[in-house]
Amino acid sequence: MSWKHDAACVGVDPDLFFGATEAEAKAVCAGCPVKVDCLIYAVENDILHGVWGGRTPAERKDDRLARRNIVKLFKRPGPPPGKALKTRRDRDRLEARKKLAWGEPT
Ligand code: SF4
């Protein structure tokens, strides 16, 4: 999980993400540059507790059900950073990543 090094929650009390402080946790996640990676990790690993990727467990349950196909897309590595998106699948992954990050319906 190399993305964890860039997380906005580095140094933040973990209890913030596993208590009754969802709004505060979400505020931290809102500005996190690895929010999508974090959310995908939580969804793929069926993490049932805490705020991950700015989403509560109940919200992630919806993600798992409604966005199963999107998560599958992320299992395939995309092109290296800075390289062109060469395939339709790469473009689909990028679009899916945008939708997942913004919480739009699929
Ligand atoms: S999205 Fe939230 S929980 Fe995930 S790494 Fe970023 S700050 Fe931490």
Describe the fold and architecture.
The protein has 106 residues and is an all-alpha fold. It has one domain (2-102). The protein is built from 5 helices and no strands. The chain has helices spanning 22-30, 35-44, 57-66, 68-74, 88-102. Helix 2 (35-44) crosses helix 3 (57-66). The longest helix has 15 residues, at 88-102. 18% of the residues are buried. The mean pLDDT is 77. Residues 7-9, 17, 28-29, 32, 34-35, 38, 52-54 line the site of iron/sulfur cluster.
Tell me how many strands there are. 0
Element pattern in H and E: HHHHH
Molecules bound to protein: iron/sulfur cluster
| Helix share bin | 40-55%
Question: In a few lines, what is going on in this structure?
Answer:
The protein has one domain. The protein has five helices and no strands.
